Every structure is written in C-alpha cells, then in structure tokens.
C-alpha cells in the first residue's frame, strides 16, 4: 500500500464538528494465513533514504509517522508476508465533549444535529473509504445512530422537539427520561430540542454497527451487535470515547 493511501484515514479531521472534542487514529495489521502472529509480521516504510521499520504492538497495532517529507515522497508500506495475505485496519476514535444549549426566545434550545455529531462524522468516513476503494477492497464498520435517551435527575425535567412551527413532547418511558429517535430528515429540516431545566442532562446513544464491504462495484451490508455510548449533554467537560 502507498503511504498516501494510508493517510486517507489518518487525515480525516472531525474536531471541527460540534460535539466532538478530539480524535485519534490507530492502525493495525493481521494476516489471513493461519498461525501467523503479529510478532511474525514486519512492517516497513520503503523510503528513498532507506527502509524504516514500523514497530508493532502485541495486538498488531502501529503508529504511522506523518511528515511533510513522507507525504511528498509517498513511499510504499510493505510487509514480510505473501502478497494478498495481509489485512490493514484503521480505527478512528472520537471523544465527545459536552454540548451546552443556547437561550433563545425565552427557552433553552439545542439543535437536533448537534446531538448527533456522528451524522457528519460518518459522511466523512464514508468519503475516505470511497477514495481507498478506488484502489482496493475496503471493509468499514461504522456506528449508525438509532436513538438517544436524554435523562435528567430533576423530576420536573421536560424535553420537546420543535420542527418549524410545530412542537412535540419527546416520548418519556419514565420520569426524567426522554427517547429521541435518529432521523436524517429532522437534521435536514433544522429541528431543535428544547430542554428544561438547563443543567444536569446526560444522554446515552443506542447505536448499531453497520459493516459494509466495498469491492470494485458491489456493496454488501450487514447489521451486527448494538453499541451504546454515554456522553454528557450539559455539565462538566467530561468526555467519553466511541468508534
């Protein structure tokens, strides 16, 4: 694989998206051949100044150096394994930050799209996968948001969704909890969430992992296990990670 191809994922910048505090990219390799362990694999950057070994951790992960010189040269990344036997993975982890509402028209509001920052992040990841798929088969496992549960310890807490001039109370399975479904249409229509009180809220994502394989002209998708993430809506600047 060429160096620039690997950087397609490393260069995905998500930190400009509201609700995402930081990110990290982890590369790893494994062999399709039985009996081949990460300790048997040697990854090398074949630069014009010589071969640069990339040390592997016990799980097969490694750090890809990013320099202007390497980007200009675009060397090959090679392995001491038979051609076609290696699988290289890139895992992009996002660290979610607190989202604070805005006071507008006498109430505290949060844009619906800000509660689902993964919506925009997934688009960028899919675009990067499409670029890599021009050269080789790509399998992506992406978290697809299904809903989010807003919760507040205040027994008088309430939450509504506003679309245009219509306001609807968000479904509440029990006191202090409100279940908000994910909808691309609501994002496109500029829906707004109104909350009361302003402090003490958290939300928990209900997420499906969607695995997609993109060879030259086909795309197969399958649903796998549910993934849950917890992330502060309003409160201290804590953060949790998701991938």
Fold and architecture overview:
The strands form four sheets. The protein has a five-stranded antiparallel β-sheet with strand order 7-8-13-10-11. It is elongated and about 65 Å long. The two termini are 24 Å apart. It has five helices and 16 strands. It folds into two domains: 1-96, no CATH class; 97-243, no CATH class. The protein has helices at residues 3-10, 68-73, 112-115, 118-132, 184-188; strands at 20-31, 43-47, 50-54, 61-62, 76-79, 86-96, 102-104, 107-111, 138-152, 158-163, 166-169, 177-181, 192-196, 201-214, 220-232, 240-242. The protein has 243 residues and is α+β, with helices and mostly antiparallel strands.
Features:
single chain, 243 residues, alpha+beta, 2 domains, 5 helices, 16 strands
> In what range is the share of β-strand residues?
over 45%
Q: Could you give the distance between the termini? A: 24 Å
- What class do helices, strands and sheet pairing give? alpha+beta
Give the H and E element order.
HEEEEHEEEEHHEEEEHEEEE
Looking at the structure, what is the overall shape? Answer: elongated
| Helical amount | 10-25%
Total strands: the figure is: 16
Order of strands in the sheet with the most strands? Answer: 7-8-13-10-11
**Distinct helical segment count:** 5
- Count of domains: 2
How would you state the average pLDDT, rounded?
A: 78
Q: Low-confidence spans: pLDDT under 50, at least 5 residues?
A: 216-243
Question: From the alpha-carbon coordinates, what is the Rg to the nearest angstrom?
Answer: 22 Å
Instruction: Report the sheet with the most strands, covering strand number, pairing sense and barrel closure.
Output: 5 strands, antiparallel
């Amino acid at each position: 694989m060429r160096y620039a191809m690997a950087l397609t994922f490393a260069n995905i910048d998500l930190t400009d998206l509201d609700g995402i505090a930081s990110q990290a990219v982890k590369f790893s390799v494994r062999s399709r051949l039985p009996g081949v362990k990460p300790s048997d694999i040697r990854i090398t950057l074949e630069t014009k100044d010589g071969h640069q070994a990339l040390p592997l951790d016990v799980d097969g992960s490694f750090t890809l150096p990013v320099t202007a010189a390497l980007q200009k040269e675009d060397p090959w990344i090679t392995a001491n394994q038979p051609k076609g036997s290696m699988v290289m993975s890139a895992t992009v982890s996002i660290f979610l930050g607190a989202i604070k509402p805005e006071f507008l028209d006498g109430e505290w509001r949060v844009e619906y799209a800000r509660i689902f920052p993964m919506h925009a992040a997934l688009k960028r990841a899919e675009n990067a996968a499409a670029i890599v798929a021009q050269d080789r088969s790509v399998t992506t496992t992406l978290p697809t948001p299904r809903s989010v549960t807003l919760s507040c310890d205040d027994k008088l807490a309430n939450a509504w969704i506003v679309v245009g001039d219509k306001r609807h109370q968000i479904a509440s399975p029990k006191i202090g909890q409100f279940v908000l479904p994910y909808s691309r249409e609501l994002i496109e229509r500029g829906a707004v969430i109104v909350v009361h009180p302003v402090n003490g809220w958290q939300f928990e994502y209900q997420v499906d992992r969607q695995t997609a394989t993109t060879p030259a002209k086909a795309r197969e998708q399958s649903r796998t296990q549910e993934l849950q993430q917890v992330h502060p809506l309003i409160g201290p600047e804590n953060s949790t990670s998701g991938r």
